[in-house]
Amino acid sequence: MAVAEVMPPGIEAVITDHIGSAAPVVMEGDYLLPDVGAGFGDHVRTVVISEPDEEQIVANYLSREPGAAEQRFRAMVSTGFDAELSVRGFRSLPRGPGRTTLIELMRPLRR
Questions:
Q1: Which letter does DSSP use for residue 45 in this model?
Q2: Domain count of the fold of the chain
Q3: pLDDT at 26 > cutoff 80
């Protein structure tokens, strides 16, 4: 969480730039706090997709980074971050085949 908590000023600068230039953007990342865009009103929408299964995360890393070694520690950090978001009360959609549909994903993004 310490990494995530120092990132908002930089992310907010990117959001401000995109709003100012009317350039849509999708930000994705392991350490984005869901409330980073809260001060931008209707200009920002947030969706959190949760994957609490460490084994699934390890498999995901191996499939997208086949040349890398197994990244169990990185997966453990990701599940810890996921759990902490839940403790802090952030709602999320479950990740995975048959669990998160496009309709579910789009619901929080509607204006």
A1: -
A2: 2
A3: yes
Question: Which percentage of the chain shows pLDDT scores above 70?
Answer: 86
7 and 57: one domain?
no
- CA 78 to chain CA centroid, Å, is 10
Mark whether 64 and 26 lie in a shared domain.
no
The C-alpha atoms of residue 34 and residue 12 are separated, in whole angstroms, by 12
| Confidence label for 100 from pLDDT (cuts 50, 70 and 90) | low
CB neighbours of residue 57 within 10 Å: 22
Give this prediction's pTM. Answer: 0.71
Host domain of residue 24: 1-43
Q: For residue 94, what are the β-bridge partners?
A: 50
